[in-house]
Amino acid sequence: MFKKILIFSLIVTLLFSLAGCSLDTTNFNQVQSETQNSTVQSKDGILKVYFIDVGQGDSIFIESPDGKTMLIDAGVPEMGKKVVDYIKSLGVKKIDILVGTHPHEDHIGGMDYVINNFDIGKFYMPKVTTNTKTFEYVLNAAKNKGLKIDVAKAGVSLDLGPEISAKMIAPNGTKYDDLNEYSAVIKLNYGDTSFLFTGDAEAESEKEMINQGYDLKSDVLKIGHHGSYTSTTAAFLDAVDPEYAVISCGKGNDYGHPHSVTLKKLKARNIPVYRTDECGTIVATSDGHSVSFNVKPGDYVPGQRN
């Protein structure tokens, strides 16, 4: 058993060393996807962010105006095929940047399936390991495809084209008691609009980001840890000051996500909340000046999930 764990750890080291809603038809632009050189063509200055409904988990797909693509997380193992099929339905053949925010099953569970079904450019995960089969499957998929794993950490810049600024602003530390705090957090700017993708980052990481003096202000905040009370502190929410909030969670999940404490904070600030358990897949569109959504918050109608 010790020998097996030792071999597993060596593999990890080697890899790192290579190192309620209704349709909003007013604002929703139907996806028109064509491919060129294995990437999506420019959408006339349009950035699209797809918060894919993967139940109790996270998966966010991004298409930049220059046709570059990024996938952040891929849900639980059972959702791998759904994520792949959804992205392929957009006409995408290559994922330029793949990010596993942290090694929990509801974030990287479907990632091996993604790796096996797409041409992958850069692949990032934080430098932390777990002894789970899910994590092992992802490492093996990367190894079998000859993919190097780059370390996800604060300060890493991501190439989504000259019109986009995308940078990791967490994790800022190297040792945490909770795996969630290792979450890769990405700030994306396009023109006058901005998005903050937080994975499952909790209070400790949020405090570090504030103390680092990062510009956290964002139009759209992907709420941390599926709306848990352990994330989205008042200080962090004040620093981000979002116009919109998106929560990725499963309907009737066993964790009670999103928690009422978090929802009350958002309501007190009059921030519209888009939830995948109510809306299904949520598509945010930016022209560089404003952000629109394919659904309306708080108007969930049964049968309209994507």
TrEMBL record:
Pfam families, sorted: Lactamase_B
GO molecular function, one term: hydrolase activity
SMART domains in the cross-refs: Lactamase_B (SM00849)
Leader sequence segment: 1-19
Annotated InterPro entries: ComA-like_MBL, Competence_DNA_uptake, Metallo-B-lactamas, RibonucZ/Hydroxyglut_hydro
Ranges of residues in domain Metallo-beta-lactamase: 56-251
Keywords of the record: Hydrolase, Signal
PANTHER family per UniProt: BETA-LACTAMASE DOMAIN PROTEIN, DNA INTERNALIZATION/COMPETENCE PROTEIN COMEC/REC2
Protein name per UniProt: Beta-lactamase superfamily II metal-dependent hydrolase
Organism: Thermoanaerobacterium butyriciformans
